[in-house]
Amino acid sequence: MSLVKDILSTYLHFQGIGRVNPIPLSESFWEEVAAGNHPELEQGRLMSAFTFSEPWAMWERHPAGEELVMLLSGVATLILEESGQEQTIQLSSPGSYVVVPKNVWHTARADAPVTMLFLTPGAGTEHRPVGT
Question: pTM of the entire structure?
Fold first, then answer.
């Protein structure tokens, strides 16, 4: 049995009790989370990674705490919005990261494939469409 896993297909839930539980990724995972079907994720932090090649369609924020956003490959622009002001942050070298403050709206843009890693507080992620 191999101990090696892929963060692009298995998320990790870091619990406050010193445990890490793998969560296999499914097409409906984020809809299930939004519907409240994973209450165990309300505590601790969720580590995930995504590959994308176009701007996100949504803004998000995390009222429960700060989020780590780390570039693994490619080039991405992270946009933070606080008090009606946007701050643009370019991530262009693997390993570069931003800690998004608690409750700050953020989104990302890319024009070519980019992979980013996220360590997100478990409770209450909020979303709104880009352009609002």
Answer: 0.89
Q: For the domain 10-129, what is the CATH code?
A: 2.60.120.10
* Sheet containing 126-129, strands listed edge to edge, beginning at the edge strand earlier in sequence: 85-91, 76-82, 105-109, 58-61, 126-129
Non-local (6+) Cβ contacts of 3 within 8 A are none
pLDDT at site 13: 92
| Contact assessment for residue 110 and residue 53, using Cβ atoms and an 8 Å cutoff | yes
Query: Taking the CA of residue 109 as centre, how many other CA atoms within 13 Å lie in the half-sphere pointing to its CB?
Result: 9
The residue ranges of every structural domain in the chain are 10-129
pLDDT tens by residue, 50-85: 999 999 999 999 988 999 999 999 999 999 998 889
CA distances from 97 to 21, 31, 71, 110, 124 (A): 24, 27, 6, 15, 22
State how far the alpha carbon of 64 is from the alpha carbons of 20, 58, 75, 87, 104, in Å.
19, 19, 28, 21, 11
